[in-house]
What we know:
Helix content: 40-55%
Number of strands: 7
Shape: globular
Structural class: alpha/beta
Radius of gyration: 16 Å
Mean pLDDT: 90
Number of helices: 6
Amino acid sequence: YFAWKERGIVILCRTSNAGGSDLQFLETGGRKLYQHVADLVATKWNAGGQCALVVGATFPAELAEVRRLVGDMPLLVPGIGAQGGDIAATVSAGRTASGTGLIINSSRAILYAGKDEDYADAARRVAQETRDAINRFRR
Length: 139
């Protein structure tokens, strides 16, 4: 976890890598571990609105399930871009009713967008394209 709003935490729930299923799909109390974590955070640990969850973009069905379990809690969503998560599917599965609630991260696609002199321009272009795509699907 790391600092959230200078007073809370972000908790790992469902990672975007395929190997995450080895642990996150373990059954506990008749539910998958990632579902149990989401429910615990939403019902017991987030009394002051200080929590957010990490839920990867590469598994939109699980992202939608977490959103259903946690309501409007913020979700930090890695996995679009180089990891293959689809922006439209991610936003559709994870947005709140008002079209918010997602902190979507795209690192490698932006960091490695260009080389040499065009690095900054290419990174800026990819970042803006990513932002525009996210906003297009929020509505």
